[in-house]
Amino acid sequence: MSLVTRCGIGYDAHRFAAGRPLVLGGVRVPHPLGLAGHSDADVVLHAIADALLGAAALPDIGYHFPPTDPRFRDADSRNLLIEATRLVVAAGFVPQNVDAIVIAEAPRIAPHVPAMRQAIAACLDLDIGAVGVKATTNEGMGFVGRDEGIAAMAIVTVIRADSRSVTGGERS
After folding, report:
1. What is the chain's pLDDT, residue by residue, as a tens digit (172 residues)?
2. How many domains does the chain have?
3. Residue 21, strand partner residues
4. DSSP string for residues in 1-43
5. Which pLDDT does position 125 carry in this prediction?
6. Mutual orientation of helices 113-124 and 43-55 as an angle, nearest 10°?
7. Which of 39, 9, 35, 10 is nearest to 22 (CA)?
């Protein structure tokens, strides 16, 4: 039996919008603007979901939760990430760790990182020690630098116990 390890990378970005709460990493963050999107527009969880799905070679978050589907209107992205995790586990993979970065000029992310790590760990059924969240600015460059929105990137590692030998059968 060989151990199969895979990584997936995810990215998401949304523009700011008035009249919506700002939700990042499964946490409501005080800010005068939220993010525009069909769901709650949580760029952090969306990036993690795409990374997770990609690690298992499954279609992306838009395929599984299309913005044209009214069921996902204002959806809590924690539920989307839990469902993405279920899909990955059903495909025979188990999340091992996640590292995410929030790219924003404002608001300050650091005070909310512990709560984000807890929310993400709960969605992926991971120990909080397997979840990294950090933040950076875009130093005034691009749409993030002009304070037009927020972006996030994530990498997720999954493992699968593969019953085929490394030298025989199809490799993953």
Report:
1. 568 899 999 999 999 999 999 999 999 999 999 999 999 999 999 999 999 999 999 999 999 999 888 888 889 999 999 999 999 999 999 999 999 999 999 999 999 999 999 999 999 999 999 999 999 999 999 999 999 999 999 999 999 856 333 333 343 3
2. 1
3. none
4. -EEEEEEEEEEEEEEEETTS-EEETTEEE--S-EE-SSS---H
5. 96
6. 40
7. 35
Q: What are phi and psi of 124, to 5 degrees?
A: -95, 0
Choose among 37, 48, 34: nearest CA to 117: 48
Question: Quick check: 43 and 14 in contact, CB under 8 A?
Answer: yes
Give residue 87's identity as a one-letter amino acid code. Answer: L
The span from the CA of 24 to the CA of 7, in Å, is 22
Q: What is the domain extent for residue 96?
A: 2-162
Q: Cα separation of 168 and 141, whole Å?
A: 50
Look up the CATH number of the domain holding residue 93: 3.30.1330.50
